[in-house]
Task: inverse folding
């Protein structure tokens, strides 16, 4: 038993995961938050480390009154079902006695700092979560586990092994993108490896080289690591035609203009960039304000609508545009806040005038 309260970030309600779960279950996002609170509280009261027997899954569905609630949370990557246990990811950062002590201490320090200095640092979030970014389909996950012998490719820890002073969580395996997902690393088998939770946290959004880890190789000695094919191979058809066609590869099938792509890929509410898109997580992690992200999307649409460029996956192109700051709409001030550039202010004014 860890106490009578759990940590709840006030921004939780706006997290893309909440919306994804709400969409999957066709219920109100606020209802998702309420039901999640019940689940988190249950884990806090009944587990030491956020790991429950798999039988807890159907119990949890009854607790929330929705069959499939756990599966929807698993699909959002806030929970994992490894066939034996139900694991609440991020548990040790949000629940549990030590987390609470840490948060209380951090809060006291932050209050003290803001009283004494009033600097921007004290407004920084007290905790961060590190989770796997995407939901890797279970069959792929299984193939990776089998291929890598259910051991961490970086430290060779076998699944389930944990040392004195570590928790059971440290012995769990996760899937690591060798080329980080946030840098266009692909979800394909040649970019995925098994990795223990401590190695995954340590490596974070770095390549093995950047993290000082030995680069994992396949059985032929070839290094793992690949980038998303939708970005790397989606050559515009026009450009291709202009070139001498003796040497290049064919343009990908299904490459379309942005207008066609939007037409064919909107959800029921007219959104092309779906709420589950990894760009929201990227924006959250890098602190890009939501209104700037939406300004960026509208500017992107304006720029490419009357352009002949064709890609198979315009969402991936947009992600690159944001990550690599193609449109130069903002800059980061010394205090870490995002500010619009002249181009950004112009885009905003132009869109305001057009609206
Ligand atoms: Zn490891």
Result:
């Amino acid at each position: 038993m860890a106490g009578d309260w759990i940590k709840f970030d006030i921004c939780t309600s706006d997290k893309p995961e909440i919306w994804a779960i709400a969409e999957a279950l066709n219920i109100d996002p606020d209802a998702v938050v309420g039901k999640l609170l019940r689940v988190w509280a249950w884990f806090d009261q009944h587990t030491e480390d956020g790991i429950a027997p798999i039988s807890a899954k159907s119990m949890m569905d009854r607790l929330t009154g929705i069959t499939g609630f756990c599966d929807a949370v698993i699909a959002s990557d806030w929970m994992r079902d490894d066939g034996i246990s139900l694991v609440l990811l991020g548990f040790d950062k949000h629940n549990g006695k030590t987390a609470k002590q840490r948060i209380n201490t951090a809060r006291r320090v932050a209050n003290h700092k803001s009283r004494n200095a009033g600097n921007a640092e004290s407004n920084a979030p007290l905790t961060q979560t590190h989770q796997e970014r995407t939901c890797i389909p279970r069959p792929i996950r299984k193939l990776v586990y089998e291929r890598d012998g259910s051991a961490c490719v970086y430290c060779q820890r076998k699944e389930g092994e944990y040392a004195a002073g570590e928790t059971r969580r440290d012995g769990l395996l996760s899937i690591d993108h060798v080329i980080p997902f946030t840098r266009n690393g692909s979800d394909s088998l040649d970019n995925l490896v098994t990795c223990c939770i401590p190695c995954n946290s340590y490596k974070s959004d770095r390549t093995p080289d950047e993290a000082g880890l030995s680069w994992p190789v396949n059985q032929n000695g070839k290094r793992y690591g690949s980038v998303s094919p939708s970005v790397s191979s989606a050559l515009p058809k026009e450009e291709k035609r202009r070139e001498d066609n003796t040497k290049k590869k064919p343009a990908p099938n299904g490459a379309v203009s942005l207008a066609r792509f939007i037409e064919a890929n909107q959800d029921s509410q007219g959104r092309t960039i779906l709420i589950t898109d990894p760009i929201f997580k990227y924006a959250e992690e890098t602190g890009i304000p939501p209104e700037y992200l939406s300004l960026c999307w509208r500017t992107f649409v304006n720029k490419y609508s009357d352009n002949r460029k064709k890609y198979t996956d315009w969402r991936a192109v947009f992600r690159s545009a944001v990550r690599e700051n193609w449109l130069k709409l903002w800059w980061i001030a010394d205090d870490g806040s995002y500010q619009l550039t002249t181009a950004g202010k112009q885009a905003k004014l132009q869109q305001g005038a057009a609206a």
Q: What stands out?
A: Residues 138-211 form one domain. The CA atoms of residues 239 and 309 lie 8 Å apart. The beta strands are 51-53, 79-81, 85-88, 173-177, 192-196, 330-332, 338-340. The chain has three domains: 1-126, 138-211, 230-354.
